[in-house]
Design brief:
The chain contains 8 helices and 9 strands. With 263 residues, the chain is of the alpha/beta class. A hairpin with a 2-residue loop joins strand 1 and strand 2. The relative contact order is 0.17. The chain binds adenosine-5'-triphosphate. Keywords: ATP-binding, Nucleotide-binding, Transport.
Length: 263
């Protein structure tokens, strides 16, 4: 339970990843060391190409680090993937257009072999969790972009993994919808106690959501600052106007500026 155990769920030590490309080696991550504790909400922020997505993909065993060690729930990322230790939300909702919303959410459950009754129960629960009760029978094109993204979050939550990895899930949405989904995500996090890793380009989003903000710089992707948020867990949107919020945002901006190449 959150608050009771602060066990480390994700542990990266001196992680390196160099891609070999036709144009030569691209060092995407260099010496990344980070512990993420159970129940943490950790955002990764940094300029394009600094390795945020690559780091998330390493956790999800979608990329293979070329150096260092990485464990997820004490397992290798590959073992954690097989143990369904995390749900993954991509930048685009990625819903199958020929399946209903419920059908999309059910898909991982079908693959995992849940009984039909269990599938139905879980779909109902996660639809409620993301505030889409009653929309299970609709097709993706009948929903707004924000609703589609909520459905994709529901799909990632359907098998109730303790860890949720989110790669810029709200990047393509307008600001009002994004604000609303940020609020909803915080409520969901408070209700479920999940550990969340969240990639974003937005300073206000990172500061509003996170218990810790990881600032990264490019060439090669390194962690340049880790900011522990002093903000209370209960965060109305207007907390963004408080001096405490603005102070953290300032520190993030300074960190980004220090690592920026401007080319
Ligand atoms: N499969 C790959 N092969 C070669 N290079 C790659 C591969 N995946 C990523 N890279 C490179 O690694 C670096 C880090 O990419 P990554 O997508 O992790 O950055 P990012 O911080 O998530 O960027 P963005 O904010 O634009 O999504 C970039 O220079 C990118 O071009």
């Amino acid at each position: 339970m959150k608050g009771v155990s602060q066990a480390t769920v994700i542990e990266a030590k001196n992680l390196d990843l160099t891609f070999q490309t036709n144009d030569g080696a691209v060092q995407a991550l260099s010496g990344v060391t980070l512990d993420i504790a159970a129940g943490d909400f950790v955002s990764f922020i940094g300029p394009s190409g600094c390795g945020k997505t690559t780091f998330l993909r390493c956790i999800a065993a979608l990329e293979q680090p070329t150096g260092g060690t990485l464990t997820v729930n004490g397992m290798t990322p590959e073992e954690a993937r097989k143990a369904r230790a995390y749900g993954y939300v991509f930048q685009a909702a990625g819903l199958y257009p020929w399946r209903t919303i419920a059908g999309n959410i059910r898909l991982p459950l079908e693959i995992m072999g849940f009984s039909r009754a269990e599938q139905a129960e879980r779909v109902k629960n996660v639809l409620e969790l993301v505030d889409l009760a009653g929309f299970g029978g609709k097709f993706p094109w009948q929903l707004s972009g924000g609703m589609q993204q909520r459905a994709s979050i529901a799909r990632a939550l359907s098998f109730d993994a303790d860890i949720l990895l989110m790669d810029e899930p709200f990047g393509a949405l307008d600001e009002i919808v994004r604000d609303h989904l940020n609020e909803e995500l915080l409520k969901l996090w408070a209700r479920t106690g999940k550990t969340i890793g969240f990639v974003t380009h937005s300073i206000p989003e990172a500061v509003y959501l996170s218990t810790r903000i990881v600032v990264m710089s490019p060439r090669p992707g390194r962690i340049t600052d880790v900011i522990e948020s002093p903000l209370p867990k209960d965060r109305p949107l207007d907390i963004r106007d408080t001096p405490e919020f603005l102070e953290i945002a300032h520190r993030v901006r300074e960190g980004l500026r220090a690592g920026h190449a401007y080319d």
